[in-house]
Amino acid sequence: MSGNDVPVRPSGRLTRRNAIELGGAGLLGVGLPELFAAQAARASSSTGPLLRRRIKSCILVFYYGGPSHLDTFDMKPDAAVEVRGEFGSIATSVPSLRIGEHLPHMARVMHKVAVIRSMHHGMRGHDSASYRTLTGRVPPVGDNQNFGELPNSFPCFGSSLSYLWRERPQSVPFASLPYVMNNNIINPGQTSGFLGPVYQPLRITGDPARLSYRSDDLRLVEGVTSLRLQQRRQLLQSVSGWDAGSMATGPVAMSTHYQRAFDLLGSGRIRDALDISRESESTRARYGHGLAGQEFDDNPKSKHRAELAISRNLRGFNLLVARRLVEAGVPFVNVYDYKQQGKNWDSHASNFEYLRKYLLPAADQSLAALIEDLDERGLLETTLVVAIGEFGRTPKINKTAGRDHWPDCFTALLAGGGIPGGAIYGASDKVGAFPVSDPVAPDDLAATIFTLFGVSPHSEIHDPAGRPYRVAEGRPIGELLA
Fold it and tell me: Which of 96, 116, 363, 402 could hold 412 in an S-S bridge, CB 3.0 to 4.6 Å?
C-alpha cells in the first residue's frame, strides 16, 4: 500500500518557457511544431530502469459518479438486507466467483477479468475523488468538491505517457471521449495538467444517432485546406532540406515536431477510426446498438424509449471507438461513462431502479463486448482494459433507497495485458466497508499500468519550473504482474 493522502503542490507559475510554448503561429498556421519542440525541450528525460513492455495500449473506462460495488462485483449475500440490497447474484465463467444478477454479459467473460476488491482512498467529493483516481495523486486542494482544473494539477496517465514518449513519432499518443463536464467545467483529472497543452488528449465527441464521431483537433484552421497543407509540407522540405523520415539534428532539429504536426492534421487513419459506419451492423449491435429499455416501456414510439436507445448506443459506441483507436495505433484511450437520460452512477436515491433500468444493462453489454472483441482480434494480450469509478457506494442503504459516496472500499476490473483472468485480488470486510487484505490505492494502480507499459514508476515528469516528480508514487501489484 502507498503512503498517506498528503497534497503535493507543484508550481503553476508562468515562466518564459511557458510563454514560448503558448506563442507563435508557425508555418502551418497552427503553431503545433513550435509547441511540440518547446515541450520536448523541457528538462532532460528520465525514464528510470528499463522494464519489459507487456502492453502496447490501454483503454481506461471511467464510470463517473461511483458505481455500487455491493450491487455488482463485491456482493454480500449474507449481510443484512439494508446492506445486501435488492439484487441477487449469478454464477460466472469462474466457478468461485459470483457477481450481480444484472451483469449476465460480464458473467460470461470473468475468466478473462481480474477483480480488485480492495481499492480505497480518502477523497469523498466527486471532483477530488476523480482527480485521485485518474492521476494517482491527492488533489492540490485536498478533499474539495467543484474545484475544476488547476494550473498545478498533475497529469492523467495518458498525458504522462505522452510526455515520457515525446520523442517517439506518434501523431496521437492519447485520446479521450468525451470529457466529463459539470456546469460547463471540465471535471479535474482528465487533462495534461502542468505538463502543458501539447500533452492534452485528442478530445473526441460523438453523435451515436448519426454514427458520427469527430475531434476539433483534427480540423484545419480556416483557410488551410488539405491541398494547402501538403503544399506547405513540400515548401518546408525544399527550403530546409527537411525529410519527413529524418531524425536529424542541427538545422533540421524541428523535423520530428513538424512531422508530428503534419501527421496529426492529415491523420486519415484516425479519422477513419472515428467512422463507426465502417463497422458491420452486427458489430455495432454487439456493443449496444438497437432499442434499449424496451423491457421497461411497451410503447415502441415512446420518447423515453428512444432516449434510452440513443444513450445505450453512445455508451457502447464509445467503447467501439476505443477499440478502433487502439487498432489505429493510439496507445492510451480514456472513455468516460457519465450520463444517461440525465442519470449517472451517483445513485443517492433509487439506486436499484437506476442500476436495473438505465445503468447496468448497457455497461454490462458494452464492456463485455469490448473484452471479447479485443480477444477475438488478437489484441487483448497487448491491450489492458481498466474499468473503475472514482469510489464505491455506502454499505448501508439510505432512506431514499440509495447509496451515498464511499471511497473507503470499492472495486476495479482489469482485463488483458497478461493480467491473470479470473483472479480476485484483495478483499473487503463482511459489509464491503473497508479492505481487510491487500489494500490498493489509485497510485498503486497507476504504478501497475505504467509497469505494464514498460515504464518504471520511478520515471520522471517535470513541472513548468523543471522540478521532477515520479510518474507514479505507488507500488505495482506484483501478484497481477506475475
Answer: 116
